Amino acid sequence: MLKLNGAAQRSFLFPSVRGDAFSYYADLENVVRFLRYVEIEAQDKQDPRLYRLAYRTQEMGAYDVCVYCDVIYEGDAAQTELQMRPLTAAQSPFAPVEPSVSAEKTVTTGEFRLVSTLREHPQNKTKIDMDLSIVSQIPASGMMKLVMAPLMGVIEPLVTGRMDEVVDHFVQESVAQYRPESL
Hints:
The protein is an alpha+beta fold. It has one domain (about 1-175): Alpha-D-Glucose-1,6-Bisphosphate, Chain A, domain 4. It contains 3 helices and 8 strands; from the N terminus they run βααβββββββα. Strands 1, 2, 3, 4, 5, 6, 7 and 8 form an 8-stranded mixed sheet that branches. A hairpin with a 6-residue loop joins strand 2 and strand 3 (about 50-60). The chain is globular and about 55 Å long. About 30% of the residues are buried.
């Protein structure tokens, strides 16, 4: 197995009170539209907190990476924290993904985590501490492992750098596009 992993943290000010910030970010569709390379693949009909997300990138202009992540997204009653946590295979209502690795692309599963802590800030603002990570085990054995290990050695730092890009884009765009009347 080869490991692919990336993480980024940011703190930022949201231009409204905590209740508004919580409502704005509690809608996962709203959150995902600002997470570059992340898409909602499916939402469970019985439990709308359960989602399958896909993280898709093209690295080095030629190598496609797709990591499917089954998650639960929910907030606390006090409206101080929003969490996206991975689901185990037993918890997931979605069909299993069959991992595949080739010289052109990797399709696999992983764990996507997002934790946002919201705190009141002076002047009707909210301070948000955001922690985002993705971890994936990429199946490779025998000759494929010998071929893929050097490639993953190049791709892993790119994915780690992409997490910084994802979080920076999220902060900039979600704050810039916030409209109080949209809540």
